[in-house]
Design a protein that fits this description.
The chain is α/β, with parallel strands linked by helices. The protein has eleven helices and five strands. It has two domains: 141 residues, Rossmann fold (3-Layer(aba) Sandwich); 83 residues, Putative methyltransferase TM0872, insert domain (DNA polymerase, domain 1), CATH 1.10.150.170. The longest helix has 14 residues. The termini are far apart. The model has no long low-confidence stretch (mean pLDDT 96). The structure holds S-adenosylmethionine (SAM).
Length: 252
């Protein structure tokens, strides 16, 4: 599927909630392929403004091409949403959208290292400028650190068995590819449900750790909220229960 045909998640709900109007100012804090952004841009014409933010350089490049015709109404910012306090004035926006999780190009392209379905380097960095990869984590973490990540970020019930097996195996062969790790996990803790890959939870755990997703979300919510004018709206689409918990706690 061409990226531009990609259908953004909960588009109608997002538009109903944010209620973009001509002249309004918005932040798409996770612009990705720009599916939500294009819809918001159309609704705020002719004199509204949208910031498109992503920590992934590929997403920024993609949107630079996609939105070239919106030159004076759209600005791309390559950073984490928790860093927006330094890039956008406080109390200046009518709405902020955060659509959390990985994008389809991140998952679909094996070389990004997110997928247990497509072989590639054990990378998982959303921001390719950062140093720490999943390969580094798997190689360097102590048993207790690996166990904590698998339990807390993956909610993996067989975390102890898996963490012990990884620590033992890496002394024989280092883990360097997603396919190698996924196969090892399938052999160590086979899934009882054929529809769910045994590596699903462990891959989620590693991805969250590599990208410091939960810490960034906690900070990002405060920062993004601070960008809003009085009466502005912050919309967050969560992907898993760990994120949802943080967002609900913030909203209380
Ligand atoms: C689910 S996709 C967003 C899809 C987008 N709404 C669309 O319509 O195409 C999530 C995007 O958020 C980005 N992202 C995740 N965490 C981020 C963070 N802390 N700061 C900035 N971007 C982030 C990812 O790189 C990814 O491109």
């Amino acid at each position: 599927m061409p990226h531009s045909k990609h259908k953004p998640v909960l588009l109608n709900e997002v538009l109903r909630f944010l209620d973009p109007k001509p002249g309004f100012r918005y932040v798409d804090a996770t612009v990705g392929l720009g599916g939500h952004a294009v819809a918001i841009l159309k609704m705020i014409e002719p004199n509204g403004f949208l910031y498109g933010v992503d920590q992934d350089g590929d997403a920024i490049e993609w949107c630079r091409n996609r939105f070239s015709q919106y030159e004076n109404k759209f600005q791309l910012l390559h950073c984490r949403f928790a860093e927006l306090g330094e890039r956008i004035s406080p109390d200046s926006c009518d709405g902020v959208l955060m659509d959390l999780g990985v994008s389809s190009p991140q998952l679909d392209r094996g070389e990004r290292g997110f997928s247990f379905m497509r072989d590639g380097p054990l990378d998982m960095r959303m921001d390719q400028n950062r140093n720490l990869t999943a390969e580094d984590l798997i190689r360097d973490m102590r048993l207790d650190q690996l166990l904590t990540i698998l339990r807390q970020y993956g909610e993996e019930p067989k975390a102890l068995r898996l963490a012990r097996a990884i620590v033992k195996q890496r002394q024989i062969t280092p883990f360097t590819s997603t396919g190698q790790l996924a196969d090892f996990i399938s052999q160590t803790i086979p899934s009882r449900n054929r529809k769910i890959h045994a590596a699903t939870k462990a891959f989620q755990a590693l991805r969250i750790a590599v990208n410091e997703e939960l810490e960034t979300l906690e900070n990002g919510l405060k920062i993004c909220f601070g960008l809003l004018k009085k009466g502005g709206r912050l919309g967050v689409i969560t992907f898993h229960s760990l994120e949802a918990r943080i967002v609900k706690r913030f909203g209380v």
